[in-house]
Amino acid sequence: MEPDFKEGDQVLVSTLNFSNLKGPKKMRDSFVGPITIIELIGNNAVEVKLTEELSSKHPVFPVSLVKPYFQTEEGKFPSRKKILTPPEVVEVEDSQDLFKNQTADKDKWLAEDAIPDGNLHLRRFRAARRTEKSHQ
Could you list the residue range(s) of the whole structural domain that residue 36 is in? Predict the structure, then answer.
């Protein structure tokens, strides 16, 4: 059976037999690329132009470890229309105020402008958390 590839095609190469990639095998990408086909070798293999990162690998791969690369989903499905849904905008009007040494049933909701110096307290709290994390 003839491969569906030709010279100059962009393909993705399987990382199944790659042992020199960083990170746990479970977290690695299944394929790398896109990589350009330089030459078809018989019916069962392709020679590709490897990137600098993969230059230690042999550039010939069996067609079973290569799959076509589609630049975008539009290339794979040209008749599919994109449906863009704008994100839902939610406005927060109230915030819950917790008091020290009080039980949860004593909590109450306050309007943002009802909290005196709320922005100042929030900035101080966040700054304290940043310095606390940097010293750990």
Answer: 10-70
- 80 belongs to a structural domain: no
69-117, pLDDT tens digit by residue?
Answer: 877 666 666 676 667 777 777 776 666 666 667 776 666 777 767 778 8
- pLDDT tens digits, one per residue of 9-53: 888 888 877 776 677 777 777 777 788 888 888 888 888 888 877
pTM assigned to the model: 0.48
DSSP sequence for the chain: ---S--TT-EEEEE-TT--S-SS-GGGS-SEEEEEEEEEEETTTEEEEE--GGGTTS-SEEEGGGEEE--SSHHHH-TTPPP---PPPP----EEEE--TT--GGG-EEEEGGGSTTHHHHHHHHHHHHHHHHHT-
Q: How many distinct structural domains can be found in the chain?
A: 2
Q: Are residues 66 and 98 in the same domain?
A: no
